Amino acid sequence: MSTNTREAITEVLDILDHMDKEHIAKIPKNFLYFLKKHKSNVYQPQFDHTKKLCDLNLKDETKIILKIILQKYWQNS
């Protein structure tokens, strides 16, 4: 897995860490495990979580992963 993908996964996990538990509970545990297993152990995103998601400087891959989560787990629930 590329460094960029691992960093994107780390960004996703950082964003999820700042979301309410209701949303997190809708994501399958095996998917969360996959993300945690493949995150970067070096990269640490520095996001201002008081800003809207669209105002954060996210990697393109981060946006793709978040879109997948939205479509598969949050949109119709």
Blueprint (SSEs and pairs):
Layout: H1 3-17, H2 21-25, H3 29-38, H4 60-74
Helix pairs in contact: 1-4
End-to-end distance, in Å? 31 Å
SSE class: mainly alpha
Helix-strand topology string: HHHH
Mean pLDDT: 95
Enumerate how many helices there are, as a single number: 4
The main β sheet shows up as: none
Quote the beta fraction. Answer: under 5%
User: What is the β-strand count?
Assistant: 0
**Shape type:** globular
**Number of structurally distinct domains:** 1
Cα radius of gyration in angstroms: 12 Å
User: Which range best describes the helical content: under 10%, 10-25%, 25-40%, 40-55%, 55-70% or over 70%?
Assistant: 55-70%
pLDDT < 50 runs, ≥5 residues:
none
General description of the model:
Helix 1 crosses helix 4. It is built from 4 helices and no strands. It is mainly α. It has one domain. The protein has helices spanning 3-17, 21-25, 29-38, 60-74.
Question: What's the quick description here?
Answer:
With 77 residues, this protein is mainly alpha-helical. The protein has helices spanning 3-17, 21-25, 29-38, 60-74.
Question: What are the main properties of this structure?
Answer:
4 helices; globular
